[in-house]
Design a protein that fits this description.
about 70 residues; about 55% helix; mainly alpha; single chain
Protein backbone atom coordinates (compact mmCIF):
# COMPACT_ATOMS: atom_id res chain seq x y z
CA UNK A 1 0.00 0.00 0.00
CA UNK A 2 1.28 3.43 -0.94
CA UNK A 3 2.02 5.44 2.19
CA UNK A 4 0.94 9.05 2.33
CA UNK A 5 2.52 11.47 4.69
CA UNK A 6 0.33 12.33 7.68
CA UNK A 7 -2.03 9.39 7.26
CA UNK A 8 -1.88 6.27 9.36
CA UNK A 9 -3.73 3.13 8.38
CA UNK A 10 -5.12 2.86 11.92
CA UNK A 11 -6.80 6.26 11.53
CA UNK A 12 -8.51 5.23 8.30
CA UNK A 13 -10.10 2.00 9.57
CA UNK A 14 -13.86 2.17 9.79
CA UNK A 15 -14.66 1.20 13.37
CA UNK A 16 -17.64 3.45 14.13
CA UNK A 17 -21.07 2.21 13.14
CA UNK A 18 -24.12 4.36 12.33
CA UNK A 19 -27.49 3.08 11.25
CA UNK A 20 -29.97 4.64 8.84
CA UNK A 21 -33.64 3.88 8.57
CA UNK A 22 -35.50 4.54 5.32
CA UNK A 23 -39.19 4.48 4.56
CA UNK A 24 -40.44 2.34 1.67
CA UNK A 25 -40.38 5.14 -0.92
CA UNK A 26 -36.85 6.20 -0.02
CA UNK A 27 -35.60 2.63 -0.17
CA UNK A 28 -37.31 2.08 -3.52
CA UNK A 29 -35.63 5.23 -4.88
CA UNK A 30 -32.21 4.04 -3.68
CA UNK A 31 -32.77 0.57 -5.14
CA UNK A 32 -33.84 1.99 -8.51
CA UNK A 33 -30.84 4.35 -8.58
CA UNK A 34 -28.41 1.55 -7.73
CA UNK A 35 -29.89 -0.74 -10.34
CA UNK A 36 -29.94 1.95 -13.04
CA UNK A 37 -26.34 3.02 -12.45
CA UNK A 38 -24.98 -0.46 -11.69
CA UNK A 39 -23.94 0.32 -8.11
CA UNK A 40 -23.04 -2.91 -6.37
CA UNK A 41 -21.60 -1.60 -3.11
CA UNK A 42 -24.41 0.35 -1.49
CA UNK A 43 -22.50 1.00 1.72
CA UNK A 44 -19.74 2.73 -0.22
CA UNK A 45 -22.30 4.64 -2.27
CA UNK A 46 -24.17 5.92 0.80
CA UNK A 47 -20.95 6.74 2.67
CA UNK A 48 -19.52 8.72 -0.27
CA UNK A 49 -22.83 10.50 -0.88
CA UNK A 50 -23.15 11.57 2.75
CA UNK A 51 -19.52 12.66 3.07
CA UNK A 52 -19.67 14.64 -0.19
CA UNK A 53 -22.75 16.50 1.08
CA UNK A 54 -21.02 17.27 4.39
CA UNK A 55 -17.85 18.51 2.67
CA UNK A 56 -19.87 20.66 0.26
CA UNK A 57 -21.69 22.22 3.21
CA UNK A 58 -18.36 22.90 4.95
CA UNK A 59 -17.15 24.58 1.77
CA UNK A 60 -20.20 26.84 1.47
CA UNK A 61 -20.07 27.76 5.16
CA UNK A 62 -16.38 28.58 5.04
CA UNK A 63 -15.76 32.20 6.09
CA UNK A 64 -14.59 34.41 3.25
CA UNK A 65 -12.54 37.56 3.39
CA UNK A 66 -14.22 39.30 0.46
Amino acid sequence: MHKRRGFKVENLKRIHRKELVFNSLELDAINIYCKRYHIRNRSKFLRETIISKVLNKFETDHPRLF
